[in-house]
Design a protein that fits this description.
Double Stranded RNA Binding Domain; mainly beta; 3 domains; Elongation Factor Tu (Ef-tu), domain 3; 3 helices; extended; four-stranded antiparallel β-sheet
């Protein structure tokens, strides 16, 4: 069974338990998605489906991509998704090109999911904000060392700064996965998932929601 769907972040809000405990909640527009392509092991070397989500103006597509999308069109319905992502399957997919996939068909309250998105870009930041460095002491007149990185060298050997050294630089704008989030509510009519906790990215950003089992991702199987 398919355990992954595409969505976008709507907003961050809150909900309350019967005991009055406040819980942070993120509303996610999860679907409907459309199957744009089906790959099989015999033809492509592996099993997967390509999902399309969202709406994009037709004039913004290149001709090759537009020709690829037209294969999934239905009578009276043109599929012009804003996002296209490939989802690998364990076995041969039972879906067909043009099939519609909704969140309510695969997710229910209580499911544990992992949400993948691109984190907000924070620009060029120092080591305290980027890596959580403690900074230097302010004693003995070192008032200018509070947010400094400190020594970055390794003496004579190897005599250079090693690659991957934690230093100041561009922060955010990276692919991030937050696991073990619980689905609190599923609105099947509007395809909205309410996930407990916060998910990466800005409003309207692409999210990949994947059902987890025992803290690990389940494989998509039919």
């Amino acid at each position: 069974m398919l355990n992954t769907i595409l969505g976008t972040k709507i907003r961050q809000t809150q909900t309350f338990t019967s005991e009055g405990e406040r819980l942070p909640v993120t509303e996610v527009q999860a679907g409907p998605c459309f199957v744009v392509q089906v790959k099989t092991e015999d033809k492509d070397g592996y099993n997967a489906i390509q999902l399309g989500f969202g709406i994009k103006k037709e004039k913004k597509f290149t001709k090759p991509v537009l020709g690829h999308l037209k294969k999934a069109d239905k009578p009276g319905l043109k599929i012009r998704p804003r996002f296209l992502r490939e989802i690998k399957m364990l076995g041969e997919a039972s879906f067909k090109v043009g099939d519609e996939i909704k969140a309510g068909e695969f997710f229910k309250p209580g499911d544990i999911v992992g949400v993948t998105g691109v984190s907000k870009g924070k620009g060029f930041t120092g080591v305290v904000k980027r890596w959580g460095f403690a900074g230097g002491p302010r004693t003995h007149g070192q008032s200018d060392r509070e947010r400094a990185p400190g020594s970055i060298g390794a003496t004579t050997t190897p005599g250079r700064v090693l690659k991957g050294k934690k230093m100041a630089g561009r922060h955010g704008g990276a692919r991030v996965t937050v696991k073990n989030l619980k689905i609190m509510e599923v609105d099947s009519e509007k395809n909205i998932l309410k996930v407990m906790g916060l998910v990466p990215g800005a409003k309207g950003g692409l999210l990949i929601i994947k059902k987890l089992k025992n803290g690990k991702g389940e494989k998509n199987a039919n």
